[in-house]
Amino acid sequence: MMKIEKFLDLGAELETQVSFLYEKIAKLAEDEAMSKQLLKISREELNHANSLKMGKNYLKEAPDIFIGVSLDEEELNLGLQKCRELHDRLQQNLALLPSLKSILDLEKRFEKVHIGVSVSVSDNHLKQLFQALTKGDQNHVAMLTGMISNIER
């Protein structure tokens, strides 16, 4: 079982990496509106990272609220590996559509992690934090799904 401090650190790193990926993918979009939407999502991902960092500060004040919470380090490390792989493929001029599909898969993965933690956490403030992150992921999934549908038409 992973310590919550490490979970929050890895989560913040993941959200930051995903933000950078969105910036790179935005540069691939020829459609200006799509590019702006991807950059907006990038900023939201940075906000998610900052929220997780604030959660770590909150943890310092109330360390006992995570007792009994089961966290999957392997899932976060796999997410980081997927981010690195997508980054490498973007460096090799990956096209827009496969890039969007890859980041959509990442968003779905993060949504599951956030839902799992929000169910496990007993503290109301942290529960709200992870529920907000889940909602953000769901919004990003919906936006990416719409973008992909538009391109495939």
Cα-to-Cα separation, first versus last residue: 45 Å
- Tell me the series of helices and strands, N- to C-terminal: HHHHH
Shape: elongated
Largest sheet: none
In the CATH hierarchy, what is the architecture at level 2?
A: Up-down Bundle
Low-confidence stretches: none
Would you count the extended β strands for me? Answer: 0
Q: Report mean pLDDT, rounded to a whole number.
A: 86
Remind me, CATH topology? Answer: Ferritin
- What class would the helix/strand composition place it in? mainly alpha
Kindly estimate the percentage of residues that lie in beta strands according to DSSP.
Answer: under 5%
Superfamily (CATH H level) name? Ferritin, core subunit, four-helix bundle
Describe this structure in words.
The protein has five helices and no strands. It is mostly helical and 153 residues long. It has a single domain, classed as Ferritin. The longest helix is centred in the first third of the chain and has 30 residues, at 32-61. It is elongated. It starts with a helix and ends with a helix.
